Each structure stands twice: as C-alpha cells, then as structure tokens.
Amino acid sequence: MSFDDDYAFEGAAPAPARDNNPPLSISELSFALKRTLEERFGHVRLRGEISKVNRHASGHVYLTLKDDKSAIDGVIWKGVVRGLGVQPETGLEVIVTGKITSYPARSSYQIVIESMEAAGAGALLAQLERLKVKLRDEGLFDPAKKKALPTFPATIGVITSPTGAVIRDILHRIAERWPCRVIVWPVVVQGDAACGQVSNAIRGFDQMTPDGPIPRPDLLIVARGGGSVEDLWCFNDEGLARTVAAARIPIISAVGHETDTTLIDFVSDRRAPTPTGAAEIATPVLADLRWALSDLEGRLSRAGARMLEDRRTRLRAAARGLPARPEDLLALPQQRLDHAASRLGSGLHRNVAVHERQLAVAAGRLTPGLLRARVERGQDRLRGAADRLGAALQAGVARNERRLLQTAGRLSPAPLHRRLDQRQARLEALGVRLDGVMPRRLERAEDRLAALSRALTTLDPKRPKPGFARIENADGAMIASAAALSPGQEVRIVFGDGAKGAIIEGEGPAPRPAPTPKPAPRPKAPPVGQGDLF
Question: Bias category Pro residues: which stretches (predicted)?
C-alpha cells in the first residue's frame, strides 16, 4: 500500500464546507411573503369594479375587484359585512379600504376589505336602478298591492328625527287640519344606522294592537328633510324597502324635497312631495268637512220642504176630485144594485121557463122504443159476457189439463198430486165465486130491466096519466094532430080510468097567439170591482 493510500483510509473523514444559501421550504417562503405584504401594505384604498360576488354559507363574502388592466381577489369577513355602507353587487364601482395579504394555499394575494363605499353618485344611482328592476320584477311596485289610506284617521304614527323642522311642520299641519292623536317614533334619518332604526320602527308600529295601551296607528308617515344623494341613501336600502312593502299599516313616504326620489317611495302606499304634504295627504280639513256637513243639512232641509209642499199640492188636488158628501160616492153603485135586484125575479122565472122547455124537448126524444132497444142491448151484452165467461173457463180448464199432461212425465206423483189438488181447489173456488157472482149480476140486470119496464109503462100512450087523454077514431087508431079531424067525425076520448065518445063540431076559435116576449134589455157593463148578478 502506498503512502497516499494510507492517508486516504486512515483517520476521521474531513467535515463538509458550510453553504451560505440554505434552501427554504415552501411554507417558509409563503409565510415570509405574507408578513412582507401585510407590513408593507397594511392599509390601502383601492378603487375598482366589483365582479364575481360569492356569498358563502359561513357568512363571508368573496369577490374580485378589477379595472381595465388588472384584478385582485378580495374577502369580507362575516362580522364586517353587516357594517358596510354599501353592499357588494356585481358591476358596482366602489372604493374599499383594507390590507393586502396572501393566501398560502394557492400562492395568491388578496385584499381583506374592512370598509366599502360607492365611488361617486353615478355608481350609487346605477346600483339603485338595478335594485329597482329587481324589486319591480318581484311585484313590490304593483299598484294593486297598495293599501287604501283611511279617510278619517284617529291615530297617526310619525317616524322621523325628534329634532328639526320636519316634526314641527308635521305636528303643526295635523293640528291645524285634523286634530288627532300623533305618536312619534324617534329615529336617526342619516347614516349607516338609519335604515335599521326605521325598519324597527315600522315593525314596532305594525306589532301594536288597536286595543292595547298604545293604540296601533291607522296611518304611518316616514319623513325626512332634503339632502344629497348620500344623505338620503339609507332610504334606498333593500331591507327597508321590503319592510315597508310587508307592513300592514298604510305608509306615506315623505323623504326629501319634491325632486328627491328614494326606493321606499316606490314601495310605500302613497308618496308625498314634502313632509308637510304628507300631513295634508293623511288628514282631511275639519273646516271643509263642517262646511260640507252644513251644506248637506241645508240641502236636506230644502229637499224635505219641497217634498212636503209637493205632497200638500197633490193632496189638495185629490181632495178637489172628491164629492162634497161621502154618501154621493155610493149613490150610483146603490142605484145599479136596486135596478139589478128589481130584475132578479123576472130573470129567475125566465130561467125556470127555459129549463122547462129544454126538459120537454128531452122528454119528447125519450120514446119507449129507445128504452126497449137499450134494454135489449144490455141483455145481449150480458148473454155475450156469460157465454164468453163459460168458454173462457172451459178453455182455461182444458189448457191447464194439457199443461198437466205435458208435465206429468217429468214430475213425481207426489208433487204432481199436490199441484193437482191445488189447481182443483183453485178451480172449485173459482166455480164457487162464479156461482155467487152470476146470480147477483143477473139479479142486478133483472132489476134494471124491471125499472126500465116500469118507465116504459108510464110512457105508454094506451094508458094516459091523470090529466092527459088519448083521442082515437072509430077504428081505434090514435089521432095525433088536429089536421086529421073533420067536422061531424065521431071520436073516442080515452082517459086513464075510462073512455067517452065525442063528435067534432067544426072549426073552433083561433088560438090566441102567444105574446112575443120583449127582448131583454141589454145589461150595462158592471163597474170595475163589482161582479155581474147573472
């Protein structure tokens, strides 16, 4: 082994030389950059346009700020979001204040936003227009949802600052026009806390009850004096607008001057140009109401007087049409009644005579041959019915016998005998009923025949009734008319109890013509309300 080899393998190994540029870990570098950024840019103000707004479920808001060349991520922690003067929306140009930091997990830097404000009036108005479109699409501006204002409010609630000219003008105007109870809910009307206090006041009034210690107002007025767009911006808050739209009490918005317009003007039930105008809209004029009431009372009195005078005139006109004496009203009807009563007896006699003539005509048509024909027809119908009944009974018995013979082969003797016995019993019962019915029917027919025979006997001209006689010639033939007689002819007059001979002497005196009855006078038309006696 050489000297060099001995030197190489004997003794401890020499120590390595120290490195003056040690390597860093990724975490060391990331946190070093984070500290550097936070120390160097611990407080910055940036102006840019918001894009990519992401509201996380944890309550944090993540967004991006950009201009025409660059962009930076931003984060707003949950505790800061509620206190922002302007809520982040996509497209809004804002000025933010915060600190620059990094997010080591993605090796990116971002700004932690601590405050945010709109970058000028133009940006605020653009944000307001976008919010208007959103609420209009949801129907919060629909006129059909507006509540009607009470005509005569008993209690009015006012939400405004307790100091300043606004509340004094409202109270003075209400006291002058319509003295009523006014409840003031003091709030601040400018700044970040204004929208929350006004919303709480509206909800507080809405939760009151009409019969509570403090009665719920019939109407609310939200009022504020004039100011710049920034001063009035709290009344453009989305949450306040939704609270106004959801209120049960009608609300009049009176924010700023006539040229100022805020978001609650669109969702409220009525907009007033000024706070004083709101007081005038909310209340009627008591003096005008008194004058109108007085005018109505006068018109009512005049109308009543005219109506009474018209009734008096009509009453006097009706009185002039009446007779001087009340009994004159009944004179003419009484006269018509007496005239009708005088004609009643003769009318009844004429009626009886007409019916007697009709009876005589009917009796002349009732001849013995007619009665005899009716009796014979009745007897024929009775004999025909009896013949048909006997034939029907025989046919029924024969039909039953055939059916019995047809079913005899299919039935056992016992049921057959039972059915045969039943049929035999029914047949016997029918025979018994027929034996009982036929004599009764024959008796009734004989009775009717006897009655008709008696009627025929009474009408027989061979046996005249008392007071009547029959004239016969020498041959015994009946003479029915005077034209068949001649002077000197012997006749025989037959009475009911005997006969006497007589000779016709000649023409007798001409019979007196029957007086021609005078035509009955045509009755006058009965008056209205009185019936005809005939």
Answer: 510-526
Confidence of residue 4 (pLDDT cuts 50, 70, 90): very low
Angle between helices 413-458 and 368-408 in degrees, nearest 10:
180
Helix and strand numbers, DSSP H then E, in the chain: 13, 13
Q: What percent of the chain has pLDDT over 70?
A: 87
Q: Would you say 86 and 230 are in contact if contact means Cβ atoms under 8 Å apart?
A: no
DSSP state of 474: T
d(CA 247, CA 226): 25
Cα–Cα distance measured from residue 480 to residue 474, given in angstroms and rounded to the nearest whole number? 14
Using DSSP's 3-state secondary structure scheme, residue 193 falls into: coil
Dig out the tokens for 325 from the structure: 């004496």
Find out whether 382 and 390 touch, Cβ atoms under 8 Å. no
**CA pair distance 77, 418, nearest whole angstrom:** 111
Q: Residue 189, Cα to own-chain centre: how many angstroms? A: 50
Other CB atoms within a 10 A radius of the CB of residue 194 amount to 21
Say if residues 69 and 49 touch (Cβ distance below 8 Å): no
- Closest C-alpha among 132, 131, 104 to residue 30: 104
Burial string for 444-465 (b: 16+ CB within 10 Å, else e) reads ebeeeeeebeeebeeeeeeeee
User: Tokens 């390595």 label which residue?
Assistant: 16
Bridge pairing between strands 498-503 and 181-186: unpaired
Given this model, what pLDDT does residue 7 score?
A: 39
Residue 231, amino acid: D
CB 147 within 8 A of CB 250: yes
Give the tokens for residue 500. Answer: 């006497």
Pairing of strands 71-76, 61-66: antiparallel
30, 107 Cβ separation under 8 angstroms = yes
Q: How far apart, in whole angstroms, are the C-alpha atoms of residue 150 and residue 142?
A: 20
Supply the DSSP symbol for 12: P
Q: How far apart are CA 246 and CA 264, in angstroms?
A: 12
Look at residue 160 and give its three-state secondary structure. Answer: strand
Share of residues in the chain with pLDDT > 90 (%): 33
Q: 3-state class of 220 per DSSP?
A: strand
Residue with tokens 């808050």: 237
Task: List Cβ neighbours of 49 (8 Å cut-off, separation of 6 or more).
Answer: 65, 66, 67, 91, 92, 93, 94
State the Cα–Cα distance between residues 520 and 118, nearest whole angstrom: 117
For 311-350, the three-class secondary structure string (H helix, E strand, C coil) is: HHHHHHHHHHCCCCCCCHHHHHHHHHHHHHHHHHHHHHHH
Pair 173, 278: CB distance under 8 Å: no
Is the pTM higher than 0.85?
A: no
